[in-house]
Amino acid sequence: MLTKRIIACMDVRDGQVVKGVQFQQLRHAGDPAELARRYNVEGIDEVVVLDITATLETRQALARTIRAVASEIFLPLTVGGGIRTEEDAAAVVDAGADKVSLNTAALRQPALITTLAERYGSQAVIVAIDAKRRDNGYAVYVRSGTSDAARDAVEWAREAESRGAGEILLTSMDRDGTRSGFDCEMTAAVSDAVNIPVIASGGAGDIQHFADVFTAGHADAALAASIFHYADTSVTSLKQFLRGQGIPVRL
Amino acid sequence: MIALIDYGAGNLTSVKKALVSLGTEFSIPASPEDVASASGIIVPGVGHFAVTGALAGPWQNAIRRAVDGGTPLLGICVGMQWLFEGSDEAPGVPGLGVLPGRVRRLQGDMAARLKVPHVGWNAISMPKPSRLLDGLDSGAYVYFTHSYAAPVTDNCVGATAHGEAFAAAVEHGHVFGVQFHPEKSSAAGLRILRNFLGTCA
What domains appear along chain B, each with residue ranges and CATH number? Predict the structure, then answer.
């Protein structure tokens, strides 16, 4: 049976892992290669590296970070943040990424999704959606959550799938960094609307939150950052708990 | 010396990295003639079956000759699918045809929340002993990412179900294939690569 994936995310700035709360207030959380080494041993299923500055000057630093992380793990590695062109994607794939995650660029030029899916396969293209609750829907934001994209998350996820995305990485901006639990309702709404895997992100605070997002949230995978960085929660004990709840995991 | 075939597959870097970590001597042949001297051949792969079209002609002939001469061959993901007669994903592109059968799209099952592509860690059951999966427990987890799959035939040594059963690992003499990505499957994956390398003289 296909297991539910536990994904560790590192937000990287200038070669260092940082962590914010609701997309603000960054603080340092360690060296990417060192964290990757720990995750590899602890049984994490997948690693995501997000370049949160993504300025031109930091692109080369990012390639170095990807190579350093890729040399520590034999697990799927996704890289996102500031990928605007086919060349940007090629640079991170050449550095060792298995998948690229598109966010702002996918909304601005949706044809990029198709271009990359044709070049690397849909399995290599993740469309990341940052959304917050508004009225009866879920408003999509771009540019690291600073700009309203005037799109609904469910409708945009459907379009991303039809254009060739292989997975959706859905982040709740309301819950990001709050440790108050994933937005299960939003995750279920998106997961039920598409036939590709949905990775839930934003709000992981304790092990029950993961069980909730895999059951009520219909998530195929759950992503968290700080809960794993600071070793508050061991991946093994999280997975043992989930298995005890009848949720299939790799142990 | 292992020959790692570069035909534009997206996981070439990852497979290289795994071979380096296992201390394997390998080369990426520049021309099909170089395949003849290899002790083993690895055809990587990920993405669309149409990419294997780049192997049609001289590469396919050279690999076929080496395999007929006894050189072990390992196909990974789309590289394994290529061992069969062909795939519905790109009907005009012929496979190597060393294994009987055709690769077809997984159907999934929306009602049971079985999505396609099949992405993630899934267990492999082992219907019979195999050199490739030696040392792994039945039920071991490996990492998959694919929408098409090969049928379960006599050559199947590792099977996985995602709505339907499909061949996760095949073995026929010295021809081996894995639908999953050993280069992304942590310790279990490295063990499988080591097992293959052990069959290469």
Answer: 2-198 (3.40.50.880)
